[in-house]
Amino acid sequence: MRLLIPLLAMTFGCDWSAATKTLEDTGDGTEERLLTDDDDTTGGDNGGPGGDSGGDNGGPGGDGGPGGDDTGTAPTDRDGDGYSVEDGDCDDDDERVNPGALDDCDGWDEDCDEEVDEDAWQADVYEPNDDWDEAVQLGSLDENPIQSLTGYLHNGADLDRYEMTLDDEDWDFFVVYLTLSNIPDDATYRMTVYKQNGSDWDEFGSVYQTGGTLETYFNDQFLVDDGGTFQLVVSADSEPPCDRTYQLDIVHDEY
Ligand SMILES: [Ca+2]
Ligand SMILES: [Ca+2]
Ligand SMILES: [Ca+2]
Ligand SMILES: [Ca+2]
């Protein structure tokens, strides 16, 4: 594929290509999987989340109920997490579950708001990076022409922005190869490239793919100094699993 690039670069305009596969197949599987355990509220003893969700540090101690069993009046906060059922604790036998808990990526709604794993992004060292001015700074591709990182898309609304700069001169040519791998088979991931234009961002192009590896590149125009600041946005067109990592590789070539 690289042998093709110099020829394409010699042609007019900024080229954008990729192996785009279609299918907008909205991933419903994830959503369903996450909600399966969710409906238990107070009451009975078993059925707590302690189960297998994994990923977390020591789950809440199993069953061994707290002291004083059968008093006539129900204790207001049986698990001692600071919230009673009246306060919105949807599992008063599990101190890990309460309205003040962090709802991380484990398939369980720890904070009782009927939304599952919405705080998963907080475990991502690159977050927050959804807004233009929050982009992860990759610096100069002239100085660091090969970059590789691991990211997460935590839900279908997550955007991961990466910003990079490129120098150019009229007679130089550059090409930037972008590879996004480990896309889940049941999710469609997208890469969109923008170039800064004053206070605006011009879209270079957008490509997407379901599952596997998405490869694309952008390159410069003939006889134009079109270096500058670029942003790459990784996003999902469908709901991805919150704990699935993707790998992003960026390679800058000049000739
Ligand atoms: Ca609780
Ligand atoms: Ca939640
Ligand atoms: Ca959770
Ligand atoms: Ca993000």
Would you give an account of this structure?
With 255 residues, the chain is mainly beta. The protein is built from two helices and eight strands. Strand 5 and strand 6 form a beta hairpin. The chain binds calcium ion (4 copies). One calcium ion (CA) binds next to loops.
What brief labels describe this structure?
255 residues, mainly beta, eight-stranded mixed β-sheet, 2 helices, elongated, binds calcium ion
- Distance, first to last CA: 16 Å
Instruction: Estimate what percentage of residues fall within beta strands.
Output: 25-35%
Structural class: mainly beta
Bound molecules: calcium ion
Mean pLDDT: 78
SSE order, as H and E?
HEHEEEEEEE
**Principal-axis shape:** elongated
Could you give a short account of the major beta sheet?
8 strands, mixed
Rg calc: 24 Å
Compute the number of strand runs: 8
> How many H/I helices?
2
List unreliable stretches of 5+ residues: 1-69
What oligomeric assembly is this protein in? single chain
Fraction in helix: under 10%
What is the topological layout?
Layout: H1 5-10, E1 16-18, H2 28-35, E2 136-140, E3 146-152, E4 159-166, E5 174-197, E6 200-219, E7 228-236, E8 245-254
Bound molecules: calcium ion (4 copies).
The site of one calcium ion has 9 residues, from loops.
Brief write-up:
The chain has 255 residues and is mostly beta strands. Helix content is 5%, strand content 34%.
